[in-house]
Design a protein that fits this description.
heterodimer, A: mainly alpha, 2 domains, B: alpha+beta, Tumour Suppressor Smad4, 18 helices, rod-shaped
Chain lengths: 301, 559
């Protein structure tokens, strides 16, 4: 069976975390502090200590995953424990505070912790789902191989276009100049690519022209590579040019398909990473809040 | 117009040579077509790709002739005016526009971009394909958050402890003050200084001292003397052991019975006999029978109540004779004002606090029926109640007046007393006066005896004749109502939805005033259980008992 972070070592850390939760709940129910449950009772201090140690240990994962020469278990094992114990932390922290919340540093600590944990849940989801999607999307090619192919197609497209007409060459040239894979954070995450629609439209337009000879040419829309070609095709192309143009459109379609896959590859990778930009900084913020929480509580004991 | 076109030719690794050419015309055309001024045999160039026009003032206008545009100074553009030094890149060729020199009006340098440079440029122009190449980062937000939270969440509030006045400044600013540390609302009584943490938390990293509490709560009584009872735990108990603030509306009095029960176990042994209190741990299961404070008087008639364990057979001595059964007749009593049905409330009325019952008052409760008249010839006249000596005076004076005025229509009285004296009648002789007053004294004594022994006082009171040589009758002292359970604070007010007989069930049938009609613990347990009671009202120690009940020590003297 495939060893995932959830099933690692027969879900050993799931059972450890469940055990921890059951013990905490049992103690919480059994414990009767005489006042409303809060962090200041002996159970409150105990659960608080456990939660604080857990947070520190969970933070150490950031160091552990960078140290490649350690003998302290596999990174997969650590990650499995990181996920399960991090989840158990929600319950332990809530029982620690006795479900008391306010507009203060203590609740801020809790909120930061919850955001960190829930962003981690998203991370677990992406780690379980996206590697498969990525492999399927790449179709056993690498991103570099796809990029190389795109460059090759660009060259071929230029020679083909040159053989047709200077206008076509110009629009292909512009299309190459405008081909930009990747971009800012938002662009990477969205991976939006309108070329599929454009290609579909050109194909429809060609077929239409072949069936209805003499139909008026579609209106020229400046700035649309494919439509420029359609316009040309509809207007003054002879058979030889039409043939070359169709070939050009085919390889440009191939390029677009590739570009879409590269964009999707970039998107998957970005989604798998983006949550860390919340998870990591907030976990460091959580460390500061935790230090503040502990010191302030004993400062004014 | 003359253009200088200088071609840079690379020969080998570092040797460079130039080949100058002249072009005549305003416009310098660039493209793959053979008629172009600068001919570029590169598929990435269009046939007529772009044109450069020298505008005459040392500036050049670069215009793209195709929709793909042209890259000038690294940016794709369609038309731009640039000065000398501008670089146009087209495929593998770089054109650098130069200052006009010599005989030329304009100049351009044409050089090839080698493969490695092209690749470099391409990678430079590439957009980021992973998040780590974009502006977002994990490192600096982490540091920023860490430092911000530490500064505003910890250091700034902590600074208020050492910098006087800082907290006030912070509280009136958007910055966090020590209120940001406040784990919960303080008790309403403490709210007026809630923002001043140091009022209670005098020292950092030390628990709140009792002295912080007794600064205000100076008169709060201690529990018991730790020295007397030899129980160190008693002295070690902090105010905070029972009273924790920052619980908002829940208040800060802990009702946990363990706070009491932990200590009230083996008290006799632990105090080496100094305490005689029995062990108590739970009202429902481990609480002894109540000790009822029975009325009693010592030899000199001083009230000295006696504490006795409650039992069904216990008799009390209130000093009063009273028959509840007779008074609570369901079909009513015949009274001078007609038929009247009495209820408990006719005589037992709660005091102002609602806790105990007011003492029974003869004048308002008994007098309607039990008048203190003594003479049928003057039925409106009565002796005062509860003033034994005044009874004698009143009667002496009443009959002396009758004797001296005359007109007292009693056949047994002397004639001189019966005769009505009119204005102008001769005064009584000395003999007559002696005779009349002798009658008056005898009559008064007779009336006194009748009152005390026959029809009035003795109805309710135990009366003894005056000792030899005295004339004041002895009426036994009375104590009706009062505090029966002195160590608990029962309040009727909280139980007023109940019927009286729910607890005082014997009252309706009681014929003797010494029946103890006060209920014992079992009666309370019908509704109240201990802290863990499931089917009754969960009741802990402080529902009935107080902690701060030392009679001598205040909190700052001992616990």
């Amino acid at each position: 069976m495939h060893d995932s972070i959830l099933t690692h070592a027969k879900s050993r850390y799931l059972w450890i975390s469940l055990g921890l939760c059951v013990i905490s709940i049992a103690l919480y129910i059994w414990h009767d502090p005489g006042i409303a449950p809060n962090g200041g009772t002996w159970l409150g201090y105990t659960l608080g200590t456990v939660a604080a140690l857990l947070i520190v240990w969970l933070l150490l994962f950031g160091i552990r995953k960078r140290s490649y020469s350690t003998t302290m278990g596999s990174t997969l094992g650590w990650l499995s424990a990181h996920v399960y114990l991090g989840t158990a932390l929600i319950l332990i922290a809530l029982l620690h505070c006795g479900f008391q919340f306010g507009w203060n540093l203590h609740t801020l600590t809790l909120v930061l912790m919850l955001i960190v944990i829930f962003s981690g849940f998203f991370g677990v989801y992406t780690y379980l789902r996206y590697p498969t999607l990525m492999t399927r999307n790449r179709e056993s090619a690498t991103r570099d191989a796809m990029l190389d192919e795109i460059a090759e197609i660009d060259q071929n497209a230029l020679s083909l276009a040159d053989g047709i007409a200077p206008e076509i060459h110009a629009v292909v040239l512009r299309s190459i100049e405008n081909t930009r894979l990747g971009g800012g954070v938002w662009t990477q995450l969205r991976a939006r690519d309108g070329s599929d629609i454009a290609i579909a439209r050109i194909k429809v337009a060609i077929e239409k022209r072949e069936t209805q000879i003499g139909a008026p040419p579609p209106s020229m829309q400046a700035g649309q590579t494919i439509l420029a070609m359609v316009d040309f095709l509809a207007g003054r192309a002879d058979d030889k040019q039409s043939e070359a143009l169709r070939k050009l459109i085919d390889i440009l379609s191939r390029k677009r398909a590739l570009a879409t896959r590269v964009a999707r590859d970039i998107q998957y990778q970005a989604i798998m990473e983006i949550w860390l930009y919340i998870h990591v900084p907030l976990s460091i913020g959580l460390l500061a809040a935790l230090i503040g929480h502990i010191i302030s509580v004993f400062f004014y004991w | 117009m003359r253009w200088l076109i200088r071609r840079v030719l690379k020969k080998g690794k570092s040797s460079i040579s130039y080949e100058d050419d002249t072009h005549f015309g305003e416009v310098l055309t660039i493209g793959r077509a053979s008629d172009q001024a600068i001919f570029l045999p590169d598929l990435r160039a269009a046939l007529n790709h772009a044109s450069v026009t020298a505008t005459g003032n040392g500036q050049y206008r670069v215009e793209s002739l195709i929709v793909a545009g042209i890259r000038v100074n690294g940016e794709i553009t369609y038309a731009i005016t640039v000065g000398p030094g501008a670089i146009i890149e087209l495929g593998s060729t770089r054109l650098t526009l130069l200052d006009a020199r010599g005989d030329y009006d304009a100049a351009v340098e044409v050089s090839a971009i080698d493969k490695s440079e092209q690749a470099q440029m391409q990678s430079r122009r590439k957009k980021p394909t992973s998040l780590s190449q974009t502006w977002i980062s994990k490192r600096w937000p982490s540091w920023l958050l860490f430092l911000l939270i530490l500064a505003f969440g910890l250091l700034l509030p902590a600074a208020t402890h050492v910098v006087p006045g800082l907290n006030n400044v912070l509280r009136h600013s958007p910055l966090p003050s020590t209120m940001f540390w406040n784990p919960g609302e303080v008790d309403s009584a403490h709210r007026y200084f809630a923002a001043d943490c140091k009022r209670c938390h005098e020292n950092a990293f030390l628990m709140v001292r009792d002295s912080a509490c007794t600064t205000c709560h100076a008169r709060t009584k201690a529990h018991a003397d730790p020295a007397k009872f030899n129980i160190p735990a008693l002295g070690d108990a902090r105010c905070g052991t029972c009273h924790q603030d920052h619980n908002g509306e829940r208040g800060m009095v802990s009702t946990d019975q363990r706070l009491c029960a932990n200590c009230h176990a083996d008290l006799k042994d632990r105090s080496k006999g100094a305490s005689q209190l029995v062990d108590i741990s739970d009202f429902g299961t481990a609480h002894p029978e109540f000790h009822v404070s029975l009325p009693g008087w010592n030899a000199s008639d001083e009230f000295t109540p006696k504490s006795m364990p409650w039992s069904n057979a216990l008799k009390e001595n209130s000093g009063l004779k009273f028959n509840h059964l007779k008074h609570l007749k369901p079909d009513g009593l015949k009274t001078p004002d007609g038929l009247k049905i009495l209820t408990c409330a006719n005589c037992h009325q709660p005091d102002v606090s609602g806790a105990a019952m007011k003492p029974i008052a003869f004048e308002t409760m008994c007098h309607d029926c039990h008048t203190l008249g003594f003479d049928t010839l003057a039925p409106e006249r009565e002796v005062p109640h509860a003033k034994v000596e005044a009874v004698t005076y009143t009667l002496d004076e009443f009959y002396a007046k009758r004797a001296l005025e005359g007109g007292y229509a009693d056949a047994r009285a002397p004639t001189i007393v019966q005769e009505r004296r009119r204005p102008g009648s001769p005064p009584m002789s000395r003999q007559e006066q002696v005779e009349a007053l002798a009658w008056a004294r005898d009559r008064a004594r007779e009336a006194t005896r009748t009152l005390f022994t026959g029809k009035a006082c003795v109805t309710c009171h135990t009366v003894n004749p005056p000792p030899a040589g005295e004339n004041v009758w002895r009426v036994a002292p009375v104590r009706v109502s009062g505090i029966w359970y002195t160590k608990a604070h029962f309040t009727h007010a909280k139980h007023q939805t109940q019927a009286c007989v729910d607890c005082h069930e014997g009252a309706q049938k009681s014929e003797a005033s010494n029946d103890l009609l006060i209920p014992g613990i079992e009666n309370c347990r019908e509704c109240h259980g201990g802290a863990h009671a499931r089917e009754q009202v969960a009741t802990t120690c402080i529902a009935c008992h107080a902690y701060h009940r030392s009679t001598q020590l205040t909190l700052d003297q001992g616990q």
